[in-house]
Amino acid sequence: MFKLQPVAWFTGLVTTLVAVDGAAEAAHVLSPTVAAWAGIGIAGLTALLGFITHGVVTPVAAPKDSSGRPLVPLNR
Q: Whole-model pTM above 0.85?
């Protein structure tokens, strides 16, 4: 399932982390400083996961289908 929807999985992960961070700060479980560091970590994770998934979902110079055959535009 992860291979089919990597962006959805990573978006769900990051959204969950942001929600937990916000809830923990609101409940005074985390100090503002710790919550800020957690936010920085989540932002870094978001950038890293965006970089990792970029090649998975963005067409490359020579796109191929799941069988490895080159994708070519249809001539009309």
A: no
DSSP-assigned states of every residue in 2-14: TTT-HHHHHHHHH
Please report the beta strands in the chain, taking only residues with DSSP state E, as ranges in sequence order. Answer: none
Alpha-carbon distance 20 to 11, whole Å?
14
Compute the Cα dihedral for 17, 20, 26, 30 and give only its sign.
negative
Instruction: At 2, list the tokens.
Output: 């992860």
- Say whether 60 sits in a helix, a strand or coil: coil
Burial (0-12, 13-18, 19+ Cβ within 10 Å), 45: middle
Mean pLDDT, the chain, integer: 82
Nearest Cα to Cα of residue 45 among 22, 16, 25: 16
